[in-house]
Automatic annotation (TrEMBL):
Natural source organism: Lacrimispora defluvii
DNA-binding is among the record's keywords: no
CDD domains: ASKHA_NBD_PanK-III
Chain positions recorded as ATP binding sites: 6-13, 132
Protein name stated in the entry: Type III pantothenate kinase
Entry note: cofactor: A monovalent cation. Ammonium or potassium.
Subunit structure, as described in the record: Homodimer.
Catalytic activity: (R)-pantothenate + ATP = (R)-4'-phosphopantothenate + ADP + H(+)
CC cofactor: NH4(+); K(+)
Its job: Catalyzes the phosphorylation of pantothenate (Pan), the first step in CoA biosynthesis.
Record InterPro entries: ATPase_NBD, Type_III_PanK
Amino acid sequence: MILAIDIGNSNIVIGGIDSSKTYFVERVNTNHRKTELEYAVNIKDIMDLNGFTISSIEGSIVSSVVPPLTEVILSAVRKLTGSTPLLVGSGMKTGLNIKMDNPKSVGSDLIVDAVAALKDFTPPIIVIDMGTATTVSVIDQQGNFTGGIIFPGLRVSLDSLSSRAAQLPYIGLDKPGKIIGKNTIDSMKNGILYGNAAMIDGIIDRMQEEIHMEASLVATGGLASSVISLCRHKIHYDDALLLKGLQILYEKNR
C-alpha cells in the first residue's frame, strides 16, 4: 500500500491505495498554521483509525496546489516513514500530452485526475472536480488534455452569499427536496445545489458541442456527491479518482 496525499485549498485528502484497491480515503482541513508534527499526527491517527500501521506503507506520493504547505507535508511524511515522498510536478513522467498555452501552469490536481480518468474511461472524457474551485477539464479522443474551465466552488459561492447578505444565514448542504423552496434556508440550499447542477449540465452540453461528440463523464471532489445526483447527465462519481491517479504516477516514477 502507498500513502497518497492531495493538498487542496480547503481540504487535504489522505488515502491508502494500491493497484487493486483503495483502502481508505479521509479528509482534514487545510491549515497553514499546523506544523509538520501536527500533520504527522493527523496522518498517523487516520491510519490507526482505519486499522493500518506505518510499516504497511511501502511508499508515498504528494500532489499540492498550496505551495506554502508542500514542504510541511513532505516533512510530515518523512517523519512518519523515514523516506521522502514523490511530488507531482514538472519533470515527472505522466504519460499525458498537455495541449495548453503553458503546460507547466496546469494544476497538479488536474493532471492527476486526467491520468486516473484515462485508465478507467474511454476518451473523450470530461472530468469534473468540485472543491474550493470547480474545474471541468476535457480530454480529447486521442487522450490529450486540451483545457477546461474554472469557476468558484459550491461552498465558496454559498459562504460569499451568506457573508454579504445580512439576513441570509450560513446553511448546510444536505440533499434538497423540491426545487422551489418554501423558506429562506431551503431557497438558498436549492439555489446553490440545483444552480450548480444546471451549470454543470449546461457546460457539458456546450463542451460536447465543441468537440462534436459525446464524452465519458466523471466527477470527483468532496462536494461533488451533493450535486451530481441532481444533474440530468449520467455522471460517474469517483471519490478516490485523484488518489487512483497518484497511485498510477507513483508506479510510473518509482
